[in-house]
Design a protein that fits this description.
The chain has about 1200 residues and is mostly beta strands. It is about 5% helix and about 50% strand. The protein contains 11 helices and 94 strands.
C-alpha cells in the first residue's frame, strides 16, 4: 500500500510569534510559527488579521527573533529550529515568500539538549545574536553588512559552560557599547555527583552576563550573581538614554529589577483572591513597546492576567518598580504589541485574538498595583497583593483567529444529510473547549437580505467613475424591466441614472471615459458622462441574446449567430468595427479586461450551442478571426477569461513563468473546464475538468483580495481565486445562488451582491485561504472522547478537567443560580438538564476570558453530554460527582439483555493523580438512551479498581481495558459481571478495536497487540505483536489483518499481519493457545510487519476512515494536537505512485526546506519513511523558479502544466 499525505487544514496552534516590519518599512506585521509552518500575518485597516504568506518548513521551529540594523527600516527574522543550523530569513515582497539570507551549521539535527536553537536573543542594535541550548552550549554570532549593504555573519563564538541548564536569555540595551547578553542558569555539577540529594535541594540559579568584545571578537563571562530560584524569564529594559537599562527577572510571585552595580529592586506580582495559597504566580509571556514618550512593558501570568510593569527612575538609578493589574485575557504562548496599539495574543489553547489598546492604564484608578516601595515583609515572607479579575477595560477585541488546537477526538459522518460528510472535532482545553463542525469550503457572512418584486434574471454593480473606490449602483434585471438601486447609507431605487428601466438588461459596463453602457435585447444605450445618450439599434428583426464588455470593447451576439464587435474611440464614441456570422446560435461570450498598458484585450471567447468553444482575435488586422476551437462535449452555459495568479511575477506563476491566460467554461452537464490560452497565438491547451454540481455553472468575475477571481454558481457556489501563487477552486458554504456580481461599498469593502429566487443578498467572505468553515458549540470541560449513536444520530461527549472545581462546589455559580433540582448523580441540574456556564452566553464569555477556578491536584470535574449535531445544541448533560473523571466512552448492545437496546458505557476514574500515578477507584457506568437519544438515564455503575482507559463492544459483551488488564464483562441487574480477564499486557491499554473474534489492543508504550478470544476456554491469547515499541495515542482498524496507528512523537504507521500467518492462526484448532505460550523473546509468536511509516511532526490524536466527496475514494483522515487536519490517500495506480515518488525526489533536491532541515531525515525522524509520498512538498512545485520547474518537469517527461494538472487532479480526488 502506497499513501499520499496531504495537509488539508494547516496547524492552528501558534508556538511562538514576533512582531516587526518584514515586508516594507512602517508596516506592522507578525511572523508566527505554527509547529512546522511559518506564517506572515498582517492586521488590515479594519483590524482583521490577514494571512499574507504561509509556508511549510519541514522542521520544528523552536524560536524566532526579529532584528534590524541601525538606520534600516525593515526587519530580518532569525530562526532556531531542529536542523542544527541558524537561518536568517528576509521576506521578499516581489516573490511573496521568505528568502534565506544566511544559513550556518553549528550542530546535529533534532531537538537535543545540547544543540542550540531553543533560546535566542538579539542585541537591540542588531549587532549580534546569541543562540543557546537547554544545556551547556551557547553561540554568539556577530552580524554585519558588507559594502553593498548585504547581511554578513561571523563564525560562531563559543560561550559554553558544562553541566549548566539555561532557562532563558535576552540581549541587554547597551547603546553602542559592547553587546551584553543575560541568561538564567543553573549549575548542576555538584547535584550530579551527590547521591544524597542535598546538593540538588541547595542548587541555586544565577543571573549570568556575557559580554561580546567587538574589538577582540571574543565572548567573556562577565558576571554571575545568585537570583531567585523561581526565575524563569528575562525582560530587557531600554537603556542608552531611553531608560535605565538592565533587566527585569520574572520569578515565581515576584518581579526583580537587576543591573550591574545596582541593588536589587523587588516587587510582588498581584494575585487573584480566589487562588489557593499553595499556588504561585508565574509569568509566561511578555511584550514591550518603545515610544517617544517612554516605554511600556506588559507581562502575562499563567492564569491569563495581564500586568503593566513600570519603572520610576532617574538616569540609571531605579527608585521604584510597579506592577499594575491591566486586564485578563486567555493565557498566551506569545504576546505581540505593535506601534499602532494592536496587541496580538497567540493563545496556548483555543482561538487567537487581536486587541486594540484603548488605554495604557494610566487613568485606571481602580486597578490594583503592587510596588517595590510598599513591599511588606512578614514572618511568613512577603505580603501578597490581591485583586479580582474584571471585564476588559483597557483592551478592545478586534478580531479572532479560529484555532482547532488541540484536536482531542474527531469523527467524520454525514449526520446533516448534506452532499459532503461533516468533520466533528472535539477541541480545546478547560472552559475554552468546544465541539466544532467542519465543512470544506469558505465561510460566508450575510450582510443584507432584501426581497425583490419578482424573480430577477441578472444583477450587476457599477461605479460612477473609474477613479471611485466604491460602487454607485446595483442594477437588477427582470424579464421585462430593469431596477436601478443607488448605494449609499441605504440602498434605494433611483430613476435619474440614465438607464432604461422598461427593458430587461443583458449587460452593464463602466467604460474608460466614465460613460456607462446598458445592453438590452433591442440595442445598446450609451450614457455619456455629461448625461447625453447615444442609442444603437439591433438590425432588422434580430435581437441581442448575449453580450460581453470591458472598459474599451463591446461584443454582442445576435439571434441567428451573428457577432458584432465595437470599440471605444478616443472621442468617447462606440464604433462598430467588425461583424461575423458564426454559423450557429451563440450560447455565451466573454472578453477579458484590458491588460495594463494595452489598448485592448486580444481575445474574445465564444461558446456555441453545437458544443464548441471558439477563441476569436480582436487585433485590428485580424478582427473576429477564429484562432482556436475546442469541442467540449456539451453545450457551454457560460465562459470566462481569467488571468493566472500573479501574472508575470517570476517564480510564482501558474503557467510557470508564462503568465498564462485561462479560459473557464461552465457546461450544462455541471462540469467546469479550465483551458490555457496561449497569449501569443490564442491556441488552447492543457484542459482540466472539475464537477461542480447538478446545475450548469454560471461564471462571474469578482475581486478577491484585489485580484480578479471567479464565482461559479452551480447547485452550490464556488470561488476560484489565487492564493500564494496557486489557483484554488473551493466551495462556499452557502445556499445555491442564481446570479452574482462583485460588490464594494464602505461597509463591505470586498463582497458580492447576489440574487437567489426573489431576494437580493449582499455577502462577504470570512477568511479567504481557510480550507474549512466552522460551527462551534461550547463545552464545559476538556473533551476526552465522543461517540456517535448510529440510529438516534446524536453525539455523546465525555468531558473531564484535572485540578478543576466541580459545578457543585463552584461558589461563583451558586450565587448566580437559584438552587436547582438535583439530578440522579447528585449534581445541581436545571430542569432541561443543562447547568453550567457554557449554556449562557455572558457567563460562557466570562469563563473563557478569565478561566475556571483552579482546584487541587487529584481533584476532577467531569460531565457526560448529549449533543444534537444538526441544531448543534446540548440536549442533556450529566455532571459527575465524587471526584470522578469520564475518560472513555463506547456504545454496546448486550446479547443477554436485548430488550435494553443500545446502551452507553462510560469509563471513569476516581481521584486520579499523576507523577506518581495513583487512583482511588475506577468505574464503568452504563446509561440507557431516552426520548430518541436526547436524554440519558443511569442504569448502574461497576467498580473496576483501576483506570478504564479504553472500552469496546465485543460479541454482545463489553471489553474494558483497565490499566494493563483486559477484561470482558456481561450485563447484570445491579452491576456488570466479569467473565474473563487477561493480565499480561505491558503498561496500559490506550485503544481497543474488535473484528470477528480478534481484538486489537494499542498499548501506551509497546505498540499494537493482536488477541483472540476462545469461547470454549473463556480465555484471551496474544497471537501477534509489533516489533517496535510505540507510545500509541490513536488507532484505526483497516481490515482483518491491518491496523493504522499513531504515537505521541508524531508518527503515523500501518501494521499488517502477513496473510500466510493470518491464515495459519485462523486454521489453528487451538486458536493459537499453545503458540501463544511459546512466544519469541517474551513476546508473541508472530510479528506484525510495518507497511507504512511517516512522521507527521505533530502528535496525531484521532484517525478516521472517510470519503470526503460524493463518489470519492475512502481515505484516512487525521487530526493533530496542533489543530491541523490531514489525509492519507491510497494511490490507485502504479503510474501515479511512481510519478509522485519521482516528483518528491526532485523537489527534495531542487527545493530544500527553508530552515535547512533535510526533508527525508525529517519525515524519517524516528522510523525511516516507508511508502508514503509527502504531498505538502509536492505542492510546493508552483513555487519553483520557472527554469527549475521546467527542468524537474522534463526529468519526469512532462511539461510544467502537466505536473500542475496531476497535482490538481489528486487534490480534487481527495476533496
Amino acid at each position: 500500500m502506497h499513501l499520499y499525505n496531504l495537509t488539508l487544514s494547516r496547524p492552528s496552534a501558534i508556538t511562538c510569534a514576533v512582531v516587526g516590519s518584514f515586508s516594507a518599512p512602517k508596516v506592522h506585521e507578525i511572523v508566527a510559527a505554527r509547529g512546522q509552518v511559518l506564517e506572515l500575518l498582517r492586521p488590515d485597516e479594519a483590524g482583521r488579521v490577514q494571512v499574507v504568506h504561509s509556508t511549510q518548513v519541514f522542521g520544528v521551529i523552536r524560536s524566532l527573533t526579529p532584528f534590524r540594523f541601525p538606520g534600516s527600516h525593515q526587519d530580518y527574522v532569525i530562526c532556531g529550529s531542529d536542523s542544527g543550523r541558524i537561518v536568517i530569513l528576509q521576506y521578499s515582497k516581489e516573490k511573496n515568500c521568505f528568502s534565506k539570507v544566511h544559513q550556518e551549521t553549528f550542530g546535529k539535527s533534532g531537538c537535543r539538549r545540547i544543540v542550540p536553537g531553543e533560546f535566542m536573543a538579539v542585541d537591540p542594535k542588531g549587532r549580534a545574536c546569541m543562540i543557546a541550548a537547554v544545556e551547556k552550549s551557547k553561540f554568539v554570532y556577530v552580524l554585519n553588512r558588507d559594502n553593498e549593504a548585504r547581511l554578513t555573519i561571523s563564525s560562531p563564538l563559543e560561550a559554553h559552560k558544562g553541566s549548566t541548564l539555561c532557562y532563558g536569555i535576552t540581549g541587554l540595551d547597551m547603546g553602542f557599547d559592547n553587546p551584553v547578553f543575560a541568561a538564567i542558569e543553573l549549575d548542576y555539577a555538584e547535584a550530579d555527583q551527590d547521591p544524597t540529594g542535598e546538593a540538588a535541594s541547595e542548587a541555586q540559579k544565577h543571573l549570568t552576563l556575557y559580554e561580546l568584545d567587538l574589538g577582540l571578537n571574543h565572548v567573556v563571562r562577565k558576571s554571575s550573581e545568585p537570583v531567585d530560584n523561581g526565575a524563569n524569564m528575562l525582560i530587557p529594559v531600554p537603556g542608552a538614554g531611553d531608560g535605565p537599562g538592565g533587566v527585569i527577572v520574572c520569578a515565581e510571585n515576584f518581579l526583580l529589577y537587576r543591573a550591574e552595580g545596582h541593588p536589587e529592586v523587588r516587587a510582588v506580582i498581584p494575585r487573584r483572591t480566589s487562588l489557593s495559597g499553595e499556588r504561585g504566580v508565574l509569568l509566561t509571556a511578555a511584550c514591550q513597546m518603545k515610544t517617544k514618550a517612554g516605554f511600556f512593558i506588559f507581562v502575562q501570568s499563567e492564569y491569563g492576567d495581564l500586568y503593566r510593569v513600570s519603572l520610576d527612575y532617574e538616569g540609571e538609578q531605579v527608585k521604584e518598580l510597579k506592577v499594575k493589574y491591566f486586564d485578563t485575557i486567555p493565557p498566551c504562548s506569545s504576546l505581540c504589541l505593535s506601534r499602532k496599539g494592536f496587541l496580538f495574543a497567540a493563545a496556548e489553547f483555543g482561538d487567537h485574538a487581536l486587541y486594540q489598546l484603548a488605554s495604557v492604564g494610566d487613568d485606571d484608578e481602580e486597578a490594583v498595583e503592587a510596588s517595590s516601595a510598599t513591599l511588606m515583609q512578614t514572618e511568613e515572607g512577603y505580603a501578597p497583593v490581591f485583586f479580582d479579575p474584571r471585564p476588559l477595560r483597557n483592551l478592545e477585541l478586534l478580531d479572532r483567529l479560529e484555532s482547532l488546537a488541540p484536536v482531542l477526538d474527531m469523527k467524520v459522518a454525514n449526520l446533516a444529510n448534506e452532499e459532503i460528510p461533516q468533520i466533528y472535532a472535539a477541541c480545546g482545553r478547560g472552559p475554552r473547549s468546544s465541539l466544532r463542525v467542519l465543512r470544506p469550503g469558505l465561510a460566508v457572512t450575510e450582510m443584507a437580505v432584501s426581497p425583490l418584486p419578482g424573480n430577477p434574471t441578472a444583477v450587476w454593480t457599477i461605479k460612477k467613475s473609474a477613479a471611485d473606490e466604491y460602487d454607485a449602483y446595483i442594477i437588477v434585471s427582470f424579464s421585462n424591466a430593469t431596477l436601478v438601486l443607488s448605494i449609499g447609507e441605504t440602498v434605494e431605487e433611483v430613476n435619474d441614472s440614465g438607464f432604461n428601466g422598461n427593458v430587461p438588461t443583458l449587460q452593464t459596463q463602466l467604460l474608460a471615459d466614465d460613460s456607462m453602457l446598458q445592453v438590452y435585447p433591442a440595442g445598446l444605450r450609451h450614457i455619456r458622462p455629461d448625461r447625453r445618450i447615444n442609442e444603437w439599434r439591433a438590425p432588422g428583426r434580430k435581437t441581442i441574446v448575449k453580450a460581453a464588455t470591458n472598459e474599451r470593447q463591446v461584443a454582442i451576439a445576435l439571434s441567428g449567430g451573428e457577432i458584432i464587435y465595437f470599440e471605444l474611440n478616443p472621442q468617447g464614441m462606440l464604433v462598430e468595427s467588425e461583424k461575423r456570422e458564426m454559423g450557429g446560435d451563440v450560447a455565451c461570450v466573454d472578453v477579458a479586461p484590458v491588460p495594463e498598458g494595452r489598448q485592448r484585450c486580444r481575445y474574445l471567447a465564444v461558446g456555441m450551442f453545437d458544443g464548441t468553444v471558439r477563441v476569436l482575435s480582436l487585433d485590428p488586422d485580424s478582427t473576429l478571426k477564429v484562432l482556436a476551437t475546442q469541442a467540449v462535449g456539451a453545450t457551454p452555459e457560460s465562459v470566462l477569461l481569467l488571468d493566472s495568479p500573479s501574472t508575470g511575477k517570476e517564480g510564482t506563476d501558474e503557467g510557470a513563468g508564462a503568465g498564462a491566460l485561462f479560459l473557464q467554461v461552465g457546461l450544462v452537464s455541471g462540469l467546469l473546464l479550465r483551458t490555457e490560452v496561449d497569449r501569443v497565438t490564442g491556441q488552447l491547451s492543457d484542459t482540466r475538468t472539475r464537477f461542480l454540481g447538478t446545475r450548469p455553472p454560471k461564471l462571474f468575475a469578482a475581486a478577491v483580495r484585489g485580484e480578479r477571481s471567479m464565482l461559479a454558481l452551480s447547485s452550490r457556489p464556488w470561488l476560484g481565486y489565487s492564493d500564494q501563487g496557486k489557483f484554488n477552486l473551493v466551495p462556499m458554504s452557502y445556499e445555491a445562488l442564481d446570479y452574482a456580481s462583485g460588490f464594494c461599498s464602505e461597509q463591505v469593502p470586498e463582497g458580492f451582491v447576489a440574487v437567489a429566487k426573489n431576494t437580493l443578498r449582499v455577502l462577504t467572505l470570512e477568511r479567504v485561504g481557510e480550507f474549512f468553515n466552522q460551527q462551534t458549540l461550547r463545552l464545559r470541560y476538556t473533551p476526552r472522547k465522543f461517540v456517535i449513536h448510529p440510529d438516534h444520530r446524536v453525539l455523546v461527549i465525555a468531558e473531564a478537567d484535572h485540578a478543576a472545581v466541580p459545578l457543585a462546589q463552584r461558589e461563583d455559580l451558586q450565587q448566580q443560580q437559584q438552587p436547582a433540582a438535583m439530578d440522579t448523580d447528585g449534581a445541581p441540574q436545571q430542569q432541561d438538564g443543562i447547568a453550567g456556564p457554557e449554556g449562557e452566553e455572558e457567563a460562557a464569555a466570562r469563563e473563557e476570558q478569565w478561566g475556571a477556578p483552579k482546584g487541587e491536584p487529584g481533584q476532577w470535574a467531569s460531565c457526560v453530554r448529549v449533543v444534537d449535531p444538526v441544531a448543534l445544541q446540548t440536549t442533556h448533560c450529566i455532571e459527575l460527582g465524587e471526584n470522578e473523571a469520564a475518560l472513555s466512552v463506547s456504545l454496546v448492545a448486550f446479547d443477554s439483555h436485548p430488550e435494553m437496546g443500545t446502551l452507553l458505557a462510560v469509563g471513569t476514574a476516581q481521584g486520579l493523580k499523576f507523577y506518581p500515578k495513583e487512583v482511588q477507584n475506577g468505574y464503568v457506568r452504563i446509561y440507557r438512551f431516552l426520548d430518541d437519544g436526547r436524554r440519558l438515564e443511569l442504569v448502574h455503575s461497576t467498580a473496576v479498581e483501576g483506570v478504564p482507559g479504553a472500552i469496546a463492544a465485543f460479541k454482545g459483551r463489553l471489553l474494558v481495558g483497565v490499566d494493563a488488564n483486559l477484561r470482558l464483562y456481561d450485563m447484570g441487574k445491579k452491576r456488570l459481571l466479569r467473565k474473563a480477564e487477561y493480565r499480561k499486557l505491558p503498561t496500559r491499554i490506550a485503544t481497543l478495536h474488535v473484528a470477528g473474534s480478534r481484538i486489537y489492543a494499542g498499548d501506551g508504550q509497546e505498540s499494537m497487540f493482536f488477541l483472540r478470544y476462545k469461547k470454549g476456554d473463556n480465555q484471551f491469547y496474544v497471537f501477534a505483536d509489533d516489533i517496535v515499541p510505540r507510545h500509541i495515542t490513536s488507532a484505526l482498524h483497516l481490515d482483518y489483518d491491518t491496523m493504522a496507528g499513531a504515537d505521541r512523537f508524531g508518527n503515523v504507521f500501518v501494521s499488517r499481519l502477513p496473510p500466510e500467518i493470518s491464515a495459519q492462526v485462523e486454521d489453528d484448532p487451538t486458536g493459537g493457545k499453545y503458540a501463544a505460550q511459546t512466544g519469541i523473546l517474551g513476546g508473541a509468536p508472530n510479528k506484525l510487519t510495518t507497511i507504512n511509516n511517516f512522521h507527521v511532526g505533530e502528535t496525531v490524536m484521532a484517525l478516521q476512515r472517510a470519503v470526503l466527496q460524493p463518489g470519492g475514494r475512502e481515505l484516512i483522515v487525521y487530526g493533530t494536537i496542533n489543530g491541523s487536519i490531514g489525509v492519507l490517500y491510497p494511490f490507485t495506480s502504479r503510474e501515479d505512485c511512481d510519478f509522485f515518488q519521482h516528483l518528491e525526489m526532485h523537489m527534495r533536491q531542487e527545493h530544500p526546506p527553508l530552515l535547512g532541515r533535510d526533508h527525508l531525515a525529517y519525515r524519517s525522524f524516528y522510523f525511516p519513511v516507508k511508502d508514503v509520498v509527502d504531498g505538502d512538498l509536492c505542492e510546493q512545485f508552483p513555487q519553483l523558479p520557472a527554469d527549475k520547474a521546467r527542468g524537474v518537469a522534463e526529468e519526469l517527461d512532462r511539461t510544467p502544466g502537466e505536473v500542475l494538472k496531476k497535482l490538481e487532479d489528486i487534490r480534487n480526488r481527495i476533496i
